[in-house]
Amino acid sequence: QVQLVESGGGVVQPGKSLRLSCAVSGFTFSAFAIHWVRQAPGKGLEWVAVRSYDGYTKNYADSVKGRFTISRDKSKNSVSLQMNSLRVEDTAIYYCARAITSRTLSFDYWGPGTLVTVSS
Amino acid sequence: QSVLTQPPSVSAAPGQKVTISCSGSTSNIGNNYVSWYQQFPGTAPKLLIYDNDKRPSGIPDRFSGSKSGTSATLGITGLQTGDEADYYCGTWDTSLSSGMFGGGTKLTVL
Question: Is A1 part of the contact surface with chain B (CB cutoff 8 Å)?
């Protein structure tokens, strides 16, 4: 069955880096775009980034542009989110999600999420 | 604050119908498909509606979606206490080349 599982979350100081991974299984990895979505404690959903199904296109929310990098590893069926220069406001649960179609936020499968806490 | 505007909360009695609106602009809702999600505390969101009005397999037809111009609407009929959750709209913004969600609407079934 389709599964997405995030890993790599934890507690990190402001200005430091963290790398999240999303391992996928149960479907053809190269056929779907994978997005990252986050949710700060008690707040709403915030779209973060996407790497297209073919890996050629990357898009980011303005709030993370220049600090976060999304990448795909076909050999490992995984998508990573490299987060640099972390800020307190980056504290959130980070979800990866599979998109049904391109250029939409139609996420039919989500991971359980991984918590990132940025604190001194 | 979110570019997509949703009412913070809505409420209705069991068995009744409720609608949740999502207002945007030409660059997002006006020219892209809208999706709707249901989220319970401590869990990942669940897709209810995609491509404006399509329901994934397993989603009951009590849930419906529509879009007109730069606004979209989620409708829920035959309300149940189990429908109490947060609901989010989401879409792509062509001008920003980014995704976006509405601020979320908390549904209370009185």
Answer: no
CB A40 within 8 A of CB A91: yes
Phi, psi (5° rounding) for residue B8?
A: -60, -35
Tokens of B65: 């979606």
Measured distance CA(B100)–CA(B4) in Å, rounded: 7
Residue bearing tokens 């997005």:
A35
Task: Tell me, yes or no, if B13 comes closer than 8 A to chain A by beta carbon.
Answer: no
Burial call A79-102: b when 16+ CB within 10 Å, e when fewer: bbbebeebeeebbbbbbbbbbbee
Task: Tell me the C-alpha distance between A62 and B97, whole Å.
Answer: 10
Tens digits of residue pLDDT in A54-94: 778 899 999 999 999 999 988 889 999 999 999 999 999 99
Measure in Å the smallest separation between the Cα of A73 and chain B Cα atoms. 22
pLDDT of res. B102: 97
Angle, vertex CA B99, rays to CA B93 and CA B104, nearest 5: 105
Task: Tell me how far apart the alpha carbons of residues B93 and B35 are, in angstroms, rounded to a whole number.
Answer: 13
